[in-house]
Structures are given as C-alpha cells and as structure tokens.
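Hi support team,

I'm filing this because I wasn't sure whether my run with coenzyme A finished correctly. The job status page said complete, but I'd like someone to confirm that the output block is well-formed before I use it downstream. Pasting the exact inputs I used:
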Amino acid sequence: MTAYENLLLDRDADGILTITFNRVTALNALNKVTLEELARAVGEATADPAVRALLLTGAGPKAFVAGADIAEFSLLDDSTAQTFARRGQYVLSLLENCPKPTLAAVNGFALGGGCELAMACHLRVAAENARFGQPEVNLGIIPGYGGTQRLTQLVGKGRALELMLTADMVNAADALRYGLVNHVVAPEQLIEFSKTLLKKILTKAPLAVRHVIDSVNAVADEKRDGYAAEAENFAYCCASEDFVEGPKAFLEKRPAHFTGK
Ligand code: COA
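And here is everything the job wrote out:
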C-alpha cells in the first residue's frame, strides 16, 4: 500500500482495515489532502479482496474528526464552493456505497464534516466521550458533505433541524437516544467492540451483506425504485452458491461456510 500523509492504515488478520485520521494537532480536521487520501484509501480497499470491512477512527484522545479544515475552506467563494461540497459528498458516498461494511468508531469530537463522515458509514459506535454536532451556522455556512440529508434520515426532521439550527453538540448518550449512533461503549472498549460487530457481519453471506447495503441505500436515491432494487437484489442472491450453502447448513445443523459466490 502507498504511504499516506494524514491517514494510518492497518489491516488485521480478519481483513478489517482500520483507517485512522491522523492530524492530531488540528483535531484530525479534514483538509483537502486528507479528503483525497480518504478517497484513495476507500477506493483501494473496495478493490482489494483481502479487505473485508472498513473501520474509521481518529488519532489522539480528543477527536474523531473535528470538521472540514476551517482554515482551508474559509478561502472558498461562490465559484469554488459547489465543487468543494460536491467533491466531499462524492468521497463520503464511497463509504456509503462501499459493498463491504463500513463503521465509524467515534472516539471524541465528530463535528461538521466529521459528523457527516460518521453518518456516511453504515454503522457508528461512539465512545462515551464522543460529541456530535453540525456547527456550520456558527461560521455562516451550512453542512455541505451530505449532512442536511443524512442527519435528517438518521434522526428525523425535527431533531435534525434543531441540531443544525442551534449548532448544539450532543453527547454520546443523546446520540444513541436520537438514533445517530448504534452503540455507546467505554473509550477503552471502542475498537474491540467495533471489530466484534464487524466480525459478526463477516460471518454472514458476503453477497447478501452487499445487497442489503445496496437495497437500503436505494431508500435515499431518488433515481431508484427501492422496492424494485430490493426484488432484483433478492433474486441475485437467490441465484448464488451461498444460497445453496445457507439452507443446507441450517438443515444439517452446522455453521454455514459462505464463499461470496
Ligand atoms: N479546522 C481546522 N482546525 C481545527 C478545527 C477545524 N475544523 N477544529 C479544531 N482545529 C484546530 C484548532 O484551530 C486548534 O489549532 P491550534 O492549536 O493551532 O490553535 C487545534 O485544532 C485544537 O483545537 P482547540 O479549539 O484549541 O481545542 P478545544 O478543545 O479548545 O476545542 C473544539 C475543541 C472541537 C470544540 C473546537 O476546536 C472547535 O470548535 N472546532 C471547530 C469545530 C467546527 O466548527 N467544525 C465544523 C467545521 S464546518
């Protein structure tokens, strides 16, 4: 794998690739270099059969990602801002559309683009010290990396509007209550718990996992009919070798050995 300036990559024996945002002095803020490195890392991981799942987290004790880099984006004007937002939306969509499970292990501040990044992952596990928020209105802008859309999908319109209009941060317990995260755990258990969750998914039929992700993503895709996508994906899975193995293993009362074919 090629070297990265602001990301640390580590693949374990189970095929879980941990991508760690590593700009601790800026609370891991997403500058252009980091965003492009993320695009490259997710692209390579998606294509690499040795990678089976992606886990994203932040370096240091304080932050997952404290937002897009304010120093950089304060230079935007109306001719460059749309490209900036569209690029960020695209890079985060790589995580949402990744056929392998993606999980944000949120170890501190997940603000602005950091919250948007976590929301683009399929699952979110928060450490008890995590803080979430979309504070863009404090700066005179709005979320631009999909936050207005994904936050509304995850927590509902009323809570999403309150969070984005007040710029308030929510703690991990409230994020769990809102449905913004799947689990809250002690900081020292964050990575192990997150990996256990991913490993459970990795015991399931990979084609089925991929097609659940695709079908659920169809909900928010106005160009697709979600029910049609579900039926197509269902049929695709029915034609797989794993759908021979799954029922056979059940009837033989043994664990299934899926091959992803
Ligand atoms: N972009 C660029 N730099 C950032 C940053 C961001 N989004 N968030 C934090 N930093 C930098 C700070 O400028 C500071 O740098 P310095 O040490 O060179 O001065 C460093 O990270 C540490 O941050 P600091 O503010 O001193 O830490 P804190 O513990 O007092 O506060 C936060 C933590 C997260 C509450 C605060 O940093 C903050 O509000 N950050 C901006 C969050 C934001 O608005 N994000 C959305 C952008 S759209």
